[in-house]
Write a structure and sequence with these properties.
single chain; about 70 residues; mainly alpha; rod-shaped
């Protein structure tokens, strides 16, 4: 296949559309990945808060048992 030496406006418009469509697909995938990361972040924060609350409860229990 011999490359064309001349780019017409129509060919440039077609290329521009293909590039725009490709970026639109990448943007859609990025939005899905971003939503997944935000969900994982919420789970991580919730888990950390639960662990901290459990540790505080454990420490309070141990202090209370040893106080008497």
């Amino acid at each position: 296949m011999v490359p064309r030496e001349k780019w017409t406006d129509e060919r440039l418009d077609d290329l521009n559309k293909k590039v725009d469509d490709g970026f639109a697909k990448v943007d859609a995938r990025f939005d899905k990945v971003e939503a997944s990361l935000q969900a994982m972040y919420r789970v991580l924060i919730g888990s950390a808060a639960t662990i901290i609350a459990a540790l505080i409860g454990l420490i309070a229990t141990l202090i209370g048992v040893n106080a008497f």
